[in-house]
Amino acid sequence: MRDVAIIGVGMTKWGELWEKSLRTIFTETALLAIADAGVDKIDSMVVGCMSSGLFVGQEHLSSLLADYLGRTPVAAARVESACSSGGLALRQGFIEVASGMSDVVLVGGVEKMTDVTGCEATYALGTAADQEYEGYHGLTFPGLYAMMAVAHMHRYGTTREQLALVAVKNHDNGSRNPLAQFPFKITVEGVLNSVLVADPLRILDCSPITDGAAAVVLCPADMARKMKKPVVRITGSGQATDTIALASRKDLTWLESTHIAAQKALAMAGRKVDEIDLFEVHDCFTIAEIMVTEALGLVEKGRGGRAVEEGLTARGGRFPVNPSGGLKAKGHPVGATGVAQAIEVVKQLRGEAGDRQVKGARRGLTQNMGGTGGSSLVHVFEAE
Amino acid sequence: MPTPSRYWREIPQRYRMEAGKCKACGFVAFPPRVVCPACGAREFVPAKLADGGKILTYTIIRVPPRPFEDQAPYAVGIAELDDGVKLTAQVVDCDFADLKVGLRVRLEFRKLSEEGEAGIIYYGYKFVPE
User: Fold this and answer.
1) Structurally, how many domains does chain A consist of?
2) Is the pTM of this model over 0.90?
């Protein structure tokens, strides 16, 4: 296997982009990534997208996006693993370059979520759960994570305030990210007084509906060094699955797929988790970040709530989690999220993260999750 | 809108709580499966689920998906039945204030939702406090 580097990143402001179509949002970010990489030609492209079919009635993104990028007949693929589609695209691009099959690969993620009503978007997102045995009974994604939260609170004494502190922390970070959908701070009181979505989760515990895209350019690390680019290598990639239905899990308070994906990625990188300087993780709901910090091994089982309370995961803490603002503040265009996590890590490792910079960051980790943890992808990145 | 076949093929599970018990290891699969997730064997004998159990976790859905708009707010939960099978369903005939982890429930056959005035009426099981 060859060493793989990220040599270009591209992202535009996320939000409710009424005036822009899926193809335009993707193309603009892809052009930014290609320009940042300084490459003329790409050998292949891989794009993560969860559900363009349900959100905009369009499949066959491989052709559409290569066409509108002006790059036909380039090889192109669209990959899907629910909300971890972006992380999966990154892994597929990584494998393609590492294997020697391609040299320069454009990896993107995109989701256009506001062309349908909120009710239809809730339905589309719900297809990441078991449609016949969860959705059939009226379950929603906030509902599924709410049940994980109730189980975690019951077993470990995690508090409602600790959940709120995750959102407050991530909005504080996001207030320093000009590309975030919601770049402003919120308070614990604000979270606790926001409208209930699925008890105990309130609207400010939930990541939003977002239009957005993200793109990176990968190439062999040797090529990147010759180009005199700042080299950030992908040193580990791990992927794992778990049952589609939450009820089938042995432990409702534990994300086994994230735990296994992290072990695989860290083993490939030859690193221990305490050697990592920052983490971009899948905080689709506040309880998710608490459970992810446990599954990654940043804290012991059941200690995730206390960790955020004690500042362990703050930007200046021992393990900075979601310095970008996370899905909560930055936004969550589901197919793009996994790629945007990688972009934040690259910016941090290049020292280009502005006033949300984690000082001296040399190694970063991303964790991207589909459904209630039915799929997880973890990547490790290191600056040279 | 799905064709009726997507609905009626699930009827044995949803109306009669039919599961598959693995001949090799005894794992009870609900809904029935082709491959046993516990041991990999592929031979099952029909089994009926236990009709009672206890709530492991729950929530109250305030923002429902279509076609549940008219029902919100409603409670849903995951229960572990007395045979060890875990499944998800609505919790009904229960004040929200009485919901708690460990609550004893039994399975009852109920209407779940419908597709407008002329479409399919969806039936299945719900949890009711014992």
Assistant:
1) 1
2) yes
Q: Classify the complex by whether its ipTM is higher than 0.90, answering yes or no.
A: yes
Domain for residue A6, yes or no?
no
Q: Which residues of A touch B108 (CB under 8 A)?
A: none
CATH number at residue A262: 3.40.47.10
Across the interface, whether the CB atoms of A120 and B66 are under 8 A apart is answered: yes
Secondary structure of residue A50 in the 3-state scheme: coil
**Catalytic annotation on A119?**
no
Is B87 part of the contact surface with chain A (CB cutoff 8 Å)? yes
Closest chain A residue to the Cα of B68, Cα to Cα:
A138
Domain around A166: 139-206+236-326+353-383
Of A122, A147, A247, the CB nearest to B63: A122
Strand A232-241 and strand A375-383: pairing? antiparallel
CA distance A134 to A136: 5
- Active site includes A83? yes
- Give me the sign of the Cα torsion angle A283, A285, A290, A291: negative
Nearest chain A Cα to B126, which residue?
A137
How many residues are listed for chain B in this entry?
Answer: 130
Under-70 pLDDT residues of chain A: none
